[in-house]
Amino acid sequence: MCLEILILFGLSVFAYLLGSIPCGLILTKRFASIDIREKGSGNIGATNVRRVAGATLGTLTLTGDLLKGAFPVCLAVYAMAGTDKLMGEIYLSVVALSSFLGHLYPLYTKFKGGGKGVATAAGCFIIISPIACIVAMLIFIVFIFLSKRVSAGSLSGAAVLPVAVWLTNHSIPLTACAIITAIFIFFRHTDNIKRLLSGTEPVI
User: What is the number of alpha carbons within 13 Å of residue 127 lying toward its C-beta?
Assistant: First the structure.
C-alpha cells in the first residue's frame, strides 16, 4: 500500500507538471512570434491559437493538450495494473484531475492564464472511459455543427460526459471525476456562456 501511495503521489505530481505546460503559448511564441495571451480571446487553447495563428499551430496545440491528459493516465493504468478495482479507479481519477488542473492553473505561468481544459479532459477520458469519451465527442461535434460555435460544443460535451461515464462504467470514482471536470469546464466558460446567451459569441 505504501508503494502504491508513493506511485500515486509521483504520478500525480508528474501529471500536474505535464498538464502545466502551456502548449499554445510556447508554440505561438516560437513559430508566430506572438504572445497568444494578448491576442484574440487571450486563451492559450487550440481554438484561440487557430483563430490567431492559423490551423497548423491550432492543430499542434490541440494535439499537445490531448497528450498532456492521455500520457499520464496511460502511465497510471500501467502502474496500477493488478490493483483492486476501486482503488485503481480512484488512482486514475486523481492522476487525471492532476493533469487537468495543471492545464487550468499552470505552475509555469504562476497559476494564471491556463486553458479551458476541454482537450486535456478529452485526453484523460479517452483512456479512462473510451466509449463515454467518444459519446461526448460526438455531442461536441453535433453542437458545433448546429451552432457554429466551439464553446457550445465544448459545454454540451462536458455536460454529457458524467452521464456517459456512469452509464458505461457504473463507477462512482470515475463519474465523480467526470462531474468535477465538467464543473470546471463550465466555470472556465463563464464568459462564453454569457456571450452565447446574448448572441455575441463568435462563430467558427
Answer: 23
Tell me, yes or no, whether 131 lies in a domain.
yes
Residue that the C-alpha cell 498532456 belongs to:
68
The contacts found for 128-131 with CB under 8 angstroms, 24 or more apart, are: 128/73, 128/92, 128/93, 128/96, 128/165, 128/174, 128/177, 129/164, 129/165, 129/168, 129/169, 129/174, 129/178, 131/164, 131/168
Average pLDDT value over all residues in the chain: 93
Q: Cell digits for 192? A: 462564453
Q: What is the pLDDT of residue 105?
A: 96
CA 112 to chain centre: 16
Q: What's the whole-model pTM score? A: 0.93
pLDDT band at 1 (very low <50, low <70, confident <90, very high): low
Indicate the number of domains in the chain.
Answer: 1
Place of cell 509555469: 108
CB atoms inside a 10 Å sphere around CB 200: 8
Average pLDDT over residues 32-53: 90
Note down the domain range covering 17: 2-198
